[in-house]
Amino acid sequence: MRALILPLIVLCLTASARAETYTLRDHSKLILVAPAGWTQSQADLGDLIFRFTPKNPKTNAAGELTVSAGVVDEYATKDKLFRYVADMAREMAASLTPKPRVPDVKPFNCKQGFGFFYSLVDPSLVGKESEPGNFKQVTGGVIRLGPGVMVEVHIASDGDQTEGYQQLLAMVEGLELKR
User: Fold this and answer.
1) Mean pLDDT throughout 88-117?
2) What is the number of structural domains in the chain?
3) What CATH number is given to the structural domain containing 105?
């Protein structure tokens, strides 16, 4: 029964969010539904960068999306994108001390397009009380939303079963592109 409660809460909170449409550099439209109860900031530096922080101080999570449009479509297949994200995961794991095992790469359950992600856990924080801004897990990944439109994803949280993580994941997996 507990396993059903968190997804139900996330669904209810996401349902109250509002869809926003953003024009990308290639004139396509990105449709993003930010979770309710989160603050969103954005910057247009050629790529659109969105940052998400929770309004509730008890939610220890944050997210960032970098949306690139009109780029060379290097990762047009799932296999190519999977290998790219697997390389990102290996590089991230190699840069940490102590060296964790290379994380598994998993698929996003995208509404549109396809993508992959990995997560790394800080073993020194496992089992400890949550500290605001000190995240137990980081997730990185990439979604190919459409030809020439890539979304780099970063989520920091206290774990993939937390409400904050689930809300950000639902937003990421619900991204849409209109041409």
Assistant:
1) 94
2) 1
3) 2.60.120.1690
